[in-house]
Q: What sequence folds into this?
């Protein structure tokens, strides 16, 4: 029985690139939700953003960077697992940003 894994194909690299490009839309939606949460906190509370709001915007920036790492390099320059984890990190940071903003 052969237990070795097959190398990543062009289709899977292209699929991950498409997922990374779709992740930018998710990041934009997350930016809107994060901004709304921070503005609501600023209007309804003491008018100051806390540490969690700053961390939320940092998460969005890092998610954008992770998406660029997954989408831009050619197939030969980035391993399939690295591209896969970059896409997962992009979506994870997009989800956590509004949660951090709401915690503030």
A:
């Amino acid at each position: 029985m052969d237990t070795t894994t097959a190398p990543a194909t062009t289709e899977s690299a292209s699929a991950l690139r498409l997922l990374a490009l779709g992740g930018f839309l998710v990041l934009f939606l997350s930016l809107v939700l994060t901004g709304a949460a921070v503005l609501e906190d600023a209007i309804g509370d003491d008018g100051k953003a806390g540490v969690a709001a700053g961390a939320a915007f940092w998460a969005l920036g890092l998610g954008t960077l992770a998406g660029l790492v997954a989408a831009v390099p050619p197939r030969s320059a980035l391993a399939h697992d690295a591209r896969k984890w970059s896409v997962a990190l992009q979506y994870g940071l997009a989800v956590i940003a509004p949660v951090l903003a709401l915690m503030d």
In short: The chain has a mean pLDDT of 89.
